[in-house]
Each structure stands twice: as C-alpha cells, then as structure tokens.
C-alpha cells in the first residue's frame, strides 16, 4: 500500500539509517525509519485511515510513528520528513528545516548510518553519498564532519555502542575528534545522556562498551570512574544467570568503582528509578559485611546478615568477592532464602506475648534456630 500511495502522490520515500546498515550486515533489523521528501505526518495519517494501526505524531519535528502487532510483537515504523538541522550552540537541540534526502543524510552521525534505499517497485541501488558501504566493509565508525561530536556529544556514546555491538573500530581522525568532543559531555543534559547511556548498558555488548569507554576516556569524563578489565570477566559470568538484568548489573558494577556518595550522586543525576538507587545503596552497605562473610557463618547467621539485601545485588556483589563469600551467598540464595519462617507474629500472639518491639527479636531468633536445624539436617547442601 505504502509504495502504491507514495507513487500516486509522487512522494519519494526512503528506508534509511540503522535498518539499512543491519540489513547489509545480515543482522536482525529492528525498528524501521522511513524518510519522506514531503509531509511524513500526512502520509502516516493517510496510512492509518486505511489500516487501523496505532499512530503517534510529533508535529514540531515533522515525524510520526505507526505501530502494529506482528506475530504478537509490536513493530514500529518511524516516518520522518526529510530535514536539515543546524545547532544554535554546542550540545543544544538542533533547529530543524524541511529539506531533501541528501540534506537528511548529511545531518546524521556516522557514515554507516547514512545509507538509504528508495522504496520502489523494482530493486534499486543503495544510496551512499558518504561512502558508508566501504566503512561498513572495513568495520569503521567515521563521522561526517569535524563538529559532529561537539554539536551532539551523545554521539560519543553512540560510537561506543556501535563499536561494541558490531565490533567496529573508530577511524583515526574520528578517534581524535571524539577526544576533542569529550569535554562537551559536561554541557549535555543528563536526560539526553541517559537516553544513549541506558541503551548502551542494556545491550548484550554492554561490558565491552564500558571497557572501550574506559579506554577512550569517556567514563572518566562522564562519571569520574574506571572500568577495570577484571570486571569484564566477573560481569560476563553473571549474565547467563541474569540475562534480563543487564542494565542494573552494568550500572551496579560501574557504580562499585565510586565512593558511596559519588555513586548515589551519579545515580540521582541520571534520574534512575528507585529500585536502582536502592540497589546502589545496598551495594555499599554490603561492603561492610565482607569481613564477616570471609569467615564461615552458621546458616542462621548467614540468613540474618543477608536477608535485608536484594538477590540481584547479592549476586552481582558476590561476583566481585572471594570464593568463600561467593559460596556462602550462593548457599543463602539457593537454599536458605526460599525457606518460609515457621513462626509468625500470630503464633507469638497465640502464646500470649503482647505485640511490641521484641517481636522482631523473637522472630529473628526463631528463624535463626530453624535454619541452623535445616543446615544440620541437610549437610550436603552447605
Ligand atoms: N542519529 C544521529 N544522531 C543521533 C541519533 C540518531 O545522526 N544522535 C541518526 C542515525 O543516522 C541513526 C538514526 O538517526 O541511524 C536513527 O537513530 P536510532 O534509531 O537511535 O539509531 P539506529 O542506528 O537505528 O540504532 P539501533 O540499531 O540501536 O536502533
């Protein structure tokens, strides 16, 4: 329908950006971006009058998103009016003017992201005004112009993400420009930085990206910390167990490189949700238990010490500790934590004990005895 309508309306439409790059690399293609030399919103509205798909429009930017369910998964197509962008000052949002495809491609971040394919009935060649195909073959990330990282410092984080994900290198002059762009990260709003940082930390290649970020001086500039190589091994071991927790694991490990106060300040600065803020606090509280956990504890004591902490924090923290600590935490998480307490407040009441602060002590002591007994009866689990 789209091709038919575009031809009828004499609208030139092009598939552009990441989906062309991924298609050429034979990688799974994510959301599709369609650039229209004309009014993208009008096209999206015409589409959704014929097909009952979901439509979101963003008039100030001349863009629209159409979404539909395909085999149970939500698929989106972004329709963008071809535009030219100019930056009133470094790291600010750009001023947008409608333009032709060539202008639209020229405003983009890297040569490998400014490839386009015209939507047509017959096969067409890839449109490649910035030699992106050669860079794609050579595995190079290259900016289109000298001010690219200064205009939009979030591109530094995008370069990291693509380098780690695709195993590409920075082309040498791009590497120099990236270094010159680093100070401009401080001028970029935390919300814009997090848009990219959050994506980077959520990808399977996040640890590789963090390691590169350390090498390129990005981590130092962004949050004043490093990513020691040893963390890569520890982090990779965690992932098969916790594949859905990539973002929280990466953030916790990164924040573990900072003092407790600095870690909380960074977590707040990027507006991370409460569970992650709490996890960062717990991480540093756990550090005070390390000496105790480095001696063999009874099951009851282990449970009492570790029960205030979230399992995710315990697992990630354990990966940075000695084998004895790792063993005790694994034993606690697998064998002890799932055991329900036999004694409850109701039982104490039934025994005629008046509700009060001593309930907590009594219940904790009863649980400790229960778990010590469990350990004595199941020595093979220890
Ligand atoms: N883009 C850019 N500068 C940015 C963000 C995006 O030039 N700061 C351009 C790039 O050309 C990119 C396109 O906008 O290809 C779409 O952005 P996005 O969806 O974030 O990038 P993808 O390349 O599609 O990345 P991904 O594969 O992670 O979806």
Automatic annotation (TrEMBL):
<dbReference type="InterPro" id="IPR032828">
    <property type="entry name" value="PolyA_RNA-bd"/>
</dbReference>
<dbReference type="InterPro" id="IPR043519">
    <property type="entry name" value="NT_sf"/>
</dbReference>
<keyword id="KW-0548">Nucleotidyltransferase</keyword>
<keyword id="KW-0694">RNA-binding</keyword>
<comment type="similarity">
    <text>Belongs to the tRNA nucleotidyltransferase/poly(A) polymerase family.</text>
</comment>
<keyword id="KW-0479">Metal-binding</keyword>
<dbReference type="GO" id="GO:0000166">
    <property type="term" value="F:nucleotide binding"/>
</dbReference>
<dbReference type="InterPro" id="IPR052390">
    <property type="entry name" value="tRNA_nt/polyA_polymerase"/>
</dbReference>
<keyword id="KW-0460">Magnesium</keyword>
<keyword id="KW-0820">tRNA-binding</keyword>
<feature type="domain" description="tRNA nucleotidyltransferase/poly(A) polymerase RNA and SrmB- binding">
    <location>
        <begin position="168"/>
        <end position="222"/>
    </location>
</feature>
<dbReference type="GO" id="GO:0016779">
    <property type="term" value="F:nucleotidyltransferase activity"/>
</dbReference>
<dbReference type="GO" id="GO:0008033">
    <property type="term" value="P:tRNA processing"/>
</dbReference>
<protein>
    <recommendedName>
        <fullName>Poly A polymerase head domain-containing protein</fullName>
    </recommendedName>
</protein>
<dbReference type="Pfam" id="PF01743">
    <property type="entry name" value="PolyA_pol"/>
</dbReference>
<keyword id="KW-0808">Transferase</keyword>
<dbReference type="GO" id="GO:0000049">
    <property type="term" value="F:tRNA binding"/>
</dbReference>
<dbReference type="InterPro" id="IPR002646">
    <property type="entry name" value="PolA_pol_head_dom"/>
</dbReference>
<feature type="domain" description="Poly A polymerase head">
    <location>
        <begin position="13"/>
        <end position="142"/>
    </location>
</feature>
<keyword id="KW-0819">tRNA processing</keyword>
<dbReference type="Pfam" id="PF12627">
    <property type="entry name" value="PolyA_pol_RNAbd"/>
</dbReference>
<dbReference type="GO" id="GO:0046872">
    <property type="term" value="F:metal ion binding"/>
</dbReference>
<keyword id="KW-0547">Nucleotide-binding</keyword>
């Amino acid at each position: 329908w789209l091709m038919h309508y575009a031809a009828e309306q004499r609208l030139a439409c092009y598939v552009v950006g990441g989906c062309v790059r991924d298609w050429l690399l034979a990688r799974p293609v994510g959301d599709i971006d369609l650039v229209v030399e004309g009014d993208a919103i009008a096209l999206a509205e015409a589409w959704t009058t014929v097909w009952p798909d979901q439509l979101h429009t963003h008039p100030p930017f001349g863009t629209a998103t159409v979404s539909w369910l395909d085999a149970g998964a939500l698929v989106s197509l972004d329709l963008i009016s071809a535009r030219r962008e100019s930056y009133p000052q470094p790291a600010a949002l750009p001023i947008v003017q409608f333009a032709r495809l060539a202008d639209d491609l020229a405003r983009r971040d890297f040569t490998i992201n400014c490839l386009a394919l015209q939507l047509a009935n017959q096969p067409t060649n890839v449109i490649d005004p910035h030699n992106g195909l050669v860079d794609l073959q050579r595995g190079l990330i290259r900016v289109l112009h000298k001010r690219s990282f200064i205009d939009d410092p979030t591109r530094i984080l995008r370069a990291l993400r693509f380098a780690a994900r695709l195993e590409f290198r920075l082309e040498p002059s791009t590497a120099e420009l990236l270094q010159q762009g680093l100070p401009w990260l401080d001028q970029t709003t935390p919300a814009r930085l997090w848009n990219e940082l959050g994506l980077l930390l959520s990808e399977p290649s996040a640890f590789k990206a963090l390691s590169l970020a350390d090498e390129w001086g990005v981590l130092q500039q962004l949050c004043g910390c490093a990513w020691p190589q040893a963390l890569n091994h520890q982090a990779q071991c965690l992932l098969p167990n916790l594949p859905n927790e990539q973002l929280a694991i990466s953030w916790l490990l990164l924040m573990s490189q900072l003092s407790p106060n600095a870690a909380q300040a960074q977590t707040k600065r990027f507006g991370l949700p409460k569970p992650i803020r709490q996890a960062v606090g717990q991480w540093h509280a756990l550090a005070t238990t390390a000496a105790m956990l480095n001696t063999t504890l009874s099951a009851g004591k282990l449970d009492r010490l570790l029960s205030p902490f979230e399992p995710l924090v315990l697992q990630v923290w354990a990966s940075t500790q000695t084998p004895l600590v790792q063993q005790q935490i694994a034993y606690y998480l697998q064998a002890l934590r799932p055991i329900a307490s036999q004694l409850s407040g109701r039982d104490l009441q039934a025994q005629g004990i008046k509700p009060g602060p001593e309930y907590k002590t009594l219940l904790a002591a009863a649980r400790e005895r229960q778990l010590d007994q469990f350990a004595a009866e199941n020595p093979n689990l220890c």
